[in-house]
């Protein structure tokens, strides 16, 4: 699977069968997701929650995109999202989580990999997490490459235009 950061809350996630585009609108290939609900498109299972939160299952890897979340998660959201492999979390000032609140949300979920979305506070978040500022726009991962239990990796990406 390949994850390309396109800026703000927009990512392009490619697997062998399809391409997912996050942000407004979220879509799989050319099929736009209508909001909360369960979907199966091109072999990808999707669970849409409130506030633009989506959970995608691609190539045995679970990815959660938290949209423009600006609060901690509810218990029912934690139940649905808990245990995801990759968590895309909005970090910023408006329509996003402050760096401190982003870390609280990350700890609610305990993902293996965190990819912050830069909505205005990426520098502060990276400093708090001890992560270098991004140099790459693309991240490739397979199920076998995921960190082991009790290990978390933060991957900050810089924006790139769509391919």
TrEMBL record:
Q: Which InterPro entries match?
A: RibonucZ/Hydroxyglut_hydro (IPR036866)
* Coiled coil location: none
> From which domain of life does this come?
Bacteria
Pfam families membership: Lactamase_B_3
The record's section on PANTHER family has:
UPF0173 METAL-DEPENDENT HYDROLASE YTKL
The identity of this protein, by name, is Lactamase
Q: Which organism is it from?
A: Candidatus Nealsonbacteria bacterium CG23_combo_of_CG06-09_8_20_14_all_40_13
């Amino acid at each position: 699977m390949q994850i390309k950061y396109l800026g703000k809350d927009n990512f392009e996630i490619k697997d062998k069968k399809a391409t997912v585009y996050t942000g407004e609108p979220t879509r799989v290939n050319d099929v736009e997701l209508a909001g909360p609900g369960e979907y199966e498109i091109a072999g990808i299972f999707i669970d849409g929650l409130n506030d633009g939160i989506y959970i995608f299952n691609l190539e045995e890897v679970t990815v959660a995109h938290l949209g423009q979340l600006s609060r901690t998660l509810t218990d029912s959201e934690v139940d649905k999202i808990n245990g995801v492999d990759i968590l895309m979390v909005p970090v910023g000032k408006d329509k996003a989580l402050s760096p401190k609140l982003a870390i609280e949300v990350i700890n609610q979920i305990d993902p293996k990999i965190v990819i912050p979305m830069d909505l205005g506070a990426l520098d502060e978040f990276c400093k708090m997490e001890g992560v270098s500022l991004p140099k790459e726009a693309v991240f490739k991962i397979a199920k076998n490459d995921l960190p082991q239990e009790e290990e978390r990796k933060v991957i900050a990406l810089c924006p790139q235009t769509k391919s």
